[in-house]
Sulfotransferase domain-containing protein
Amino acid sequence: MKEFIKEKLFSDVHKQIRSLRSVNDGLVESAAAFSDRLDRLERENKRLKNELKKSYVNNRLVDFTVDSVWFYTMMKSGTTYTINVILNYISLLSDESSSPVRNELLECFHSTHNKVDNPKIGSVLSEQEAFLKGVGFKYFVHTHRKIASLSKRTIVLSRNPLDFIVSKYFYMYKNRGVEVSLEDKTGALIKEYMKYYRGLRAVVSGGNNFLELRYEDLMLDPEGQFKKVIEYLDIEYDERLLRVAVEYSSKDSVRKMEADTGGAIIASKNKFTGKSFIRSGKVGDWKQYISSARAEELLQELEGEGFDRALYKYE
């Protein structure tokens, strides 16, 4: 009798255990399903936030295009140099005794696209409005990223891919203490270059009112190229003042300003360890890091993606 009762009790206990295990398994499955659903909702929420932010930024940028000029440029294609020369020229037109524009002002005109949702955008735009007063434009809006709506005037700036690859490698990796070889990053840099290239060619072929500049021409004939910019912007042209503006923006002048202020212009943040934003600036600097045979391989690879090598100078 005792054995019967014992077996009965154990049997009931085992049934309860099995029942509890079944309930527990169900709860685990439900929890997993809930967690999965929560993850999906969080991803969707993040996506929607990004879409809303993108829409907000683009709408603000479209607003800025009224009576403004767009600077749509590849990274490492002479953006800082170009904006620096133009700002120095405008400053000299206003006052021939002007000193080179300060880094703080230059930053108000560089990468405007990235500052749209920044609380400080108001002060940035106020600085621009005050500086450009009398020139005929409300803002100079600079971006490295393609957007749908462009202003009535757009300045497009690019560079040959070989010098781009080397310059971007030093800027993003070597001068930030990242131990990686140029060859290891070449594939990713080619993809990045073609993203810029396609976007820029879309602007050029899209019937927009644009002025296309190339880094190589800016380096080899700065005064001639910036005369084109001044005429394109319908700003008063003064050959002597332009010469001074170009000198104010030269490598030596910028390096002196960096030494005086104690940091590289524009690139002083995000672990940038270089003493100067300017590294070489020479057309054909790629030859020190890429062999002729490898350069030809890269150019052929780029041509397979739709690149036109004849658009650029390489030395």
About this structure: DSSP finds eleven helices and four strands in the chain. The beta strands are 69-73, 140-143, 153-158, 210-214. The chain has two domains: 1-64, 66-311.
